[in-house]
Design goal:
The complex is a heterodimer. Chain A contains 4 helices and 5 strands; from the N terminus they run H-E-H-H-E-E-E-H-E. By secondary structure, chain A is of the alpha+beta class. In chain A, strand 3 and strand 4 form a beta hairpin. In chain A, helix 3 crosses helix 4. By secondary structure, chain B is α+β, with helices and mostly antiparallel strands. Classes of the chains: A alpha+beta, B alpha+beta.
């Protein structure tokens, strides 16, 4: 059973790892989490993204959520924002697509064109 | 929504949308009284009397880019189907409290569902927010404070990949424990 006491150990380990990645540029992944997104399955999508990142121990990616952006019929929506590149928005994402987006786009820099809505 | 935890996620997103920096989630499951209730309290921008009157009315606004859409009306309908109710309290600049009740054993009451993942995602996505979570199931309870975790982590961010891994397990285990799980 995990307890708050585990955090002491975790803190030491994480601090050592953090020294290594200081100054690294971050990739941002944003999941639409308005009522429309949630109803369309955005929770499971965000969960899959975090799971895939954890499996690969990718520490330079932050995942956050945003409210409704008015494209309810395209939800779940996921933005991938890489440093120095335009934002790429994926539509109708499900957990399986989400994992592929992490592998192909976030890790290997290969956006998946047929799922992209716009890139502004 | 097929799980009450998705309604809770929706309420928390409303709070964040309203600029809340602190969100409290309480869930009470009381089988003796045949009662299921949850409450989300925030310190966001709140609503004036007029907005509050219409907040649970689906046709007050259907604009998806605004704070109110179908979230509250859906939740209100879910409560009322189960002989319960939705109560909204809010004052401008003081925050909002949403309280729901359901008859626990009602046929139409959706299950709570995956509340551990719900709480975990809010913490992962918005580590800056102060999140307090309390969950009672009959005699058992579990309390969680994001601030307590941050205090113990010191300079390590809450959304550090190793911390998230721990958080996910910690929440799932402790919440599972409320239901007599291992």
């Amino acid at each position: 059973m995990k307890s708050l006491a585990d955090l002491e150990n975790l803190r030491q380990k994480a601090q050592e790892a953090m020294k290594v990645r200081e100054g690294m540029k971050e990739t941002k992944v944003v999941v639409g989490m308005g009522t429309c997104g949630i109803a369309a399955g955005a929770r499971e999508v965000m969960s899959a993204i975090l799971d895939e990142l954890a499996k690969r121990q990718l520490a330079d990616v932050t995942v956050t959520q945003t409210g409704c952006v008015g494209l309810c019929e395209y939800e779940p929506l996921v933005d991938v924002i890489k440093p120095g590149q335009p934002k790429v928005t994926y539509h109708h994402v499900d957990p399986e697509k989400a994992r592929q987006i992490v592998v192909k786009h976030v890790v290997n820099d290969q956006p998946i064109g047929e799922w992209v809505i716009t890139s502004r | 929504m097929r799980e009450l935890s998705l309604h809770i996620l929706d309420l928390v997103e409303n709070s964040l949308e309203a600029g809340a920096t602190q969100v409290e989630i309480e869930i009470r499951e009381d089988l003796k009284q045949d009662l299921f209730c949850f409450r989300v309290r925030d310190n966001g921008r709140g609503m004036d009397e007029d907005t509050l009157q219409h907040a649970a009315d689906a046709f007050y606004t259907k604009r998806c880019t605004r704070k109110f859409g179908f979230g509250l009306p859906l939740l209100k309908a879910a409560c009322e189907r189960c002989e319960g109710k939705l109560v909204l309290e809010s004052k401008p600049w003081q925050g909002t409290i949403v309280t729901t009740t359901f008859r626990y054993s009602h046929w139409d009451r959706a299950p709570l569902g995956d509340i551990a993942t719900t709480i975990f995602l809010v913490l992962a996505g918005r580590p800056d927010v102060k999140l307090y979570y309390r969950h009672w199931v009959d005699g058992k309870s579990f309390e969680f404070s994001s601030e307590e975790v941050k205090r113990r982590l010191g300079p390590v961010p809450l959304n550090h990949v190793a911390v998230l891994d721990w958080l996910k397990g910690y929440l799932a285990e402790n919440i599972g424990h409320l239901y007599g799980g291992a």
